[in-house]
Amino acid sequence: MTIQAPSAESTFALTLEQFVKKADDFLQNYYAGGNDDETMRGMVKAIKELHLEIDEEAIEAEFQLHCDRKDLEADYYDSAWF
Fold this sequence. Notes:
Blueprint: H1 8-31, H2 37-53, H3 56-80
Helix pairs in contact: 1-2
């Protein structure tokens, strides 16, 4: 068994899950009436951090590689019938 580095896609998913948890906590606090300036600043900071943590180019490259691989597999299976 080999250890593989997490893909950009899985890193993005994990980061997004963490952000959604923070957003859910913020919303629960907001609807409970416990919202204050510090909580709002914390949520804005979390939004900025989410943007900084996302490697858009790596995700796009990984997605393109996935699409290219699927296209090659489809071409292979299509030509195998001849």
